[in-house]
From TrEMBL:
Organism: Aphanomyces astaci (Crayfish plague agent)
InterPro entries associated with the record: Homeodomain-like_sf
Name under which the protein is recorded: Transposase Tc1-like domain-containing protein
Source lineage: Eukaryota, Sar, Stramenopiles, Oomycota, Saprolegniomycetes
Length: 172
């Protein structure tokens, strides 16, 4: 640690070196006066940095990175793992994406990405019949009845529809 660091964060080896230096000078569980200042001068660090590492080691027993959980590769789930988690859910808990996310512990983004990639498929419980030829002709007939008699087109070429009278316009 005689040379200056290029990185902002100390490595675990540097932290271990600071802890060893402080433990060598510790007597009866306490550091003598001025030992943190001496460690800072010897290891070419700031006094507050040495003090923070020493306190963290005494209270926690180790000095993990304070960025834990925010650095490194993000946790990724394989498509097989996601499908397995969703298939283990009962049908009642699979109604919405938010329900799936809370039940499985996955994020909404993970579920959305898997839907887009095709790992998960969207299913609907809505029963809607397809438009048959018979229904199609009936709808066309109803539309033609709604057109005004005569040409059915204004000067603009847009079909006009009969307006049904509103309740307040009717005279009783």
């Amino acid at each position: 640690m005689a040379t200056s660091r290029a990185n902002r964060e100390l490595t675990t080896d540097d932290k271990t070196e600071v802890v060893k230096y402080l433990q060598d000078r510790m007597s009866l569980g306490k550091l003598p006066r001025g030992s943190i200042k001496a460690a800072a001068a010897a290891l070419n660090l700031n006094r507050k940095t040495v003090s923070g590492i020493g306190k963290a080691c005494l209270t926690q027993g180790s000095s993990p990175s304070k960025k834990a959980g925010r650095v490194g590769r993000k946790l990724r789930y394989t498509p097989e793992h996601v499908t397995q988690l969703v298939q283990e859910l009962p049908q009642e808990e699979r109604s919405t994406m938010r329900d799936i996310a809370t039940a499985t512990g996955l994020t909404m983004g993970t579920i959305c990405r898997n839907l887009k990639s095709g790992t998960l498929e969207r299913r609907s419980s809505r029963l809607k019949p397809l438009l048959t030829d018979e229904n199609r002709t009936e709808r066309i007939d109803n539309t033609m009845l709604a057109l005004t008699p005569g040409f059915g087109l204004k000067d603009t070429g847009i079909p006009t529809f009969r307006r049904k009278p509103r309740l307040r316009e009717l005279a009783f």
